[in-house]
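Tutorial, part two.
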Amino acid sequence: MSHKVLIIDDEKDICYLISEILKDENFVSDFSTNSADALNKFEIFKPDLVILDVWLGNSELDGLELLKEFKKNSPQIPIIIISGHGTVDMAVNAIKNGAYDFLEKPFNSEKILILSKRALEAAKLIDENKYLKKIVDPKIPITGNSQFIINLKKNLSKISDTNSRILILGPKGSGKKFIAQNIHKNSNKSNSIANIIDLKNLSESELNTMFVEDKFNIDQNIFIKSNNNTLILYNIDFLPINFQKKILNYLENDQYFKNFGINLDVKIIAIISNNIEQEIKKGNFIQNLYNRLNVINIKVPSIDERREDILPICEFYLNYYNKNKKYKFSFSKKSADKLETYAWPGNVRQIINYIEKTLILNQDLNQKSDYELTNLPLDMGENEEKNESSIDLTLSLKDARFNFEKQYFLSQIKRFNGNITKISEFTGMERTALYRKFKSLNITINNINR
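Running the prediction step on this input gives:
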């Protein structure tokens, strides 16, 4: 596959030289000698890589200003800066403003090729990490005793075997993404990479990259990137209408990708958290797209509607986290009753987070290996909003992190009776790092056994 490179230098000879060097390695290039033409070609040519001279004579914008313009509109684009004698400081400044690296004149062809390939590879990795998250084969089984879980387990193989589109609906935190992972795990595409894309809060530029349709960049389209794989469209109900229309076109027009010489084979799973009927009535979601996606429908109830799943989930994750941490626990009758009667507004996700957090913050682990959880840290049932998290969500991230870390380390100090060696082993931190952490959290260490 060829990559497009835009070369910007006020010396035409330099542009020609770089172009010829890259041409031998299957790069397609265009060039500009001033900022105005560069901005225009950047929009039209849509390069994968920019090679930019930091000093542009007789130009409205210099290289650094041009870099900022490119990054403002396309933050993902890799840019290599060319610097001459006396402009290295400017090149270093350019890197601080988002450039990938810089070449100092005079340069040789090997350096240009190596740096260009590295820049493109780095951009590819960033792009894949941002949009495409490889789903690790979920070792955790679908757990519960409700009729919903029983039916889901019974029909999982049939649902997974089909290549029909699947729509999963349900409230936030109810386990929709986890179910999608299990469908992929049991499908005929389980040996390939499943791509899960969170479509919420993506910028117009990011979505344009994901749903690109011009013939020069069509291989970057998310559907083509997911060919022969599973594509999980998470939070598709947050996707703007113009991009919904693109997906609808792909689903309605079998010839669309064939026109580019591509036979598309993608298992599509769409996930929706909002009330989709209301979103359609409001004009926020296209009815025809809903119909196309809604071939196999899985409605995931809230945990409040399947309360018989609460304790099995709690016990599974209690054992799961205990196994990793080599401690043995059980719930007391009182604790089990509290767990089963609590509202759990955050659904399954809140239960899992709560169990893990309970184990982290639980005290007296050093006293015995079998420990019955008789009193859970939260006063469940008193104040649901407060119980969802013991951290004040009105705080800044910095202050919230400070409070959590202080609570966490105070718990470890009490748990291990101030034994710094045991705290170090449990947390995986060096002793000196622990002392620095205690100091930063204003934790006095007078009573710690060194």
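The CA atoms of residues 167 and 297 lie 5 Å apart. In part three we will examine how such features are distributed along the chain.
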